[in-house]
Design a protein that fits this description.
- It is a single chain.
- This protein folds into three domains: 43 residues; 271 residues, TIM Barrel (Alpha-Beta Barrel), CATH 3.20.20; 94 residues, no CATH class.
- A seven-stranded mixed beta sheet has the order 1-2-3-4-5-6-7, with helices on both faces.
- It has 17 helices and seven strands.
- Helix content is 47%, strand content 10%.
- With 450 residues, the chain is of the alpha/beta class.
- The radius of gyration is 22 Å and the shape is globular.
């Protein structure tokens, strides 16, 4: 019994080390965990037809503090078929996640999320509540973060714009919350491993700053109750989930003192962003919320505009669109948008985000609600994994001239990449480095046979 407790504690310690801001410590912990696997000390679940291609990491914000390495490890332990990370405005976790996947034998891919301006829908709310013309947007399947030229410059601009927006936001909120005021460099940036803070980091920083300034519990409760117009009994002080959510809602979202309505110049245009994604080796991806906005009610028109600028996939977050055992309009909308994606031969990216408390580690694709559309998620996940590897190893990814020449019909391209992704094992990815532009698709598939 004592030995079991000791082993469990050692495992827990190593897993905690996977979230260290020290990258060398993360690598050492993963190597030690993989050694335990190889010696039979830790069991891994077999693949079970589950995927999560949309998990934020601590390089933007993960509600559980997960690093790319931690998510890769947990995904492999849980038996995910394919796992993918997505961070806001950065690709900081790219190499780390792909390397961890190869070590663990996990199929991986990397994405990035940002916001864009869609001129065709300038007067319609799309998926960013209260913000007409503004859309959350993604690229998936990036083969590397080691970019050069214009793609590198575009990525640097995203990071700089995000930081400037955050600093300005903090300045406005500071004026309202004084004497609780943040120093962005001292109070916010230490919460991040690489300086890419989000509103959620800022909310945590305000909660901690208030607790340090107002040490008396009654004073702290009175302060937040006044500033947030809230019942102090519901604030889970000093830095609970409810408090942080209210800080964000009341000070940073529409109607809050820190909010500034975005316009056509606030974010890059979708066309420009998709050009960056393609040049960086990714697949441009439209993101879908729940089908209830004016823009999303015109989903075919919206996707037509997106596809005209290079979009070849759509992202959905199933968990936010249904409650188990309770069929509703959002579930119907989810099924409809997956059906529309199928008609348009778009890949369907699915995941849980994990950047807000309570979001699950992986969707239950065997549930009555998701089982009918799960095949689209699984096949697309394998296709995006195959794209990621083929683009990284040989420049023959989904959007390459090679792929378009051999598979001018997107449905055929989807089928080929899905088959490659299903057959390919992470331990054999390097074999694809021998391919060139003269390779025939049949030869690619035959080379993957055991």
């Amino acid at each position: 019994m004592g030995r079991t407790i000791e082993v469990d504690r050692d495992l827990a310690r190593l897993e905690d080390d996977l979230d260290s801001f020290d990258c060398s410590r993360r690598r050492q912990a993963l190597a030690a965990l993989q050694d335990k696997v190889q010696r039979g000390r830790v069991a891994l679940h077999p693949s079970a037809g589950r995927v999560n291609l949309h998990c934020h990491t601590f390089f933007s914000y993960n509600a559980r503090g997960y690093s790319p390495t931690r998510f890769a490890w947990l995904a492999r332990r849980a038996g995910l078929d394919v796992a993918g990370i997505v961070d806001f405005d950065v690709l900081d976790g790219c190499e780390e996640f792909l390397d961890a996947g190869r070590l663990l034998g996990l199929k991986t891919c990397v994405g990035m999320e940002t916001r864009v301006y869609v001129p065709e829908f300038a007067d319609c709310v799309i998926n960013s509540p209260g913000e007409p013309g503004i859309s959350y947007h993604m690229g998936v399947g990036f083969p590397t973060a080691k970019l050069k030229g214009e793609p590198a410059e575009f990525l640097a601009r995203l990071r700089k714009t995000s930081e400037t927006r955050n600093r300005d936001l903090v300045g406005r909120v500071n004026e309202y919350l004084r004497p609780v005021a943040l120093d962005y460099d001292d109070d916010v940036l230490p919460l991040t491993p690489a300086g890419n803070a989000t509103e959620r980091h800022i909310c945590l920083a305000y909660a901690r700053k208030a607790h340090s300034v107002l040490r008396n519990q009654d004073d702290l409760a009175s302060f937040w109750a006044d500033k947030l117009s809230a019942d102090p009994e519901e604030l889970d002080l000093p830095e609970g989930v409810k408090l942080q959510a209210l800080i964000r809602l009341k000070t940073m979202k529409r109607g809050g003192v820190g909010y500034v309505q975005p316009d056509s110049g606030s974010f890059p245009w979708m066309t420009e962003t998709n050009r960056f994604i393609l040049e960086a080796g990714g697949i441009p991806t439209h993101t879908w919320l729940d089908g209830t906005s004016e823009g999303e009610s015109r989903i075919e028109e919206l996707l037509e505009a997106a596809m005209s600028t290079g979009v070849a996939a759509i992202n959905v977050i199933p968990d936010r669109n249904y409650t188990a055992g309770q069929p509703g309009s959002k579930l119907a909308n989810l099924r409809q948008v997956v059906a529309v994606a199928g008609e348009l031969d778009l890949l369907v990216v699915s995941g849980t985000e994990m950047n807000s408390p309570g979001q699950p580690f992986v969707d239950d694709l065997d549930s009555a609600e998701l089982a009918p559309i799960a095949p689209a998620f699984l096949e697309s996940a394998h296709a995006i994994y195959a794209h990621s590897v083929l683009q990284r190893q040989a420049g023959l990814g989904y959007a390459s001239e090679w792929a378009q020449r051999h598979f001018p019909k997107r449905a055929d391209r989807n089928e080929f990449f899905a088959e490659v992704g299903a057959r390919l094992r992470p331990s054999r990815e390097d074999l694809l480095g021998n391919l060139d532009g003269d390779a025939m698709p049949r030869a690619v598939l035959e080379g993957l046979r055991d």
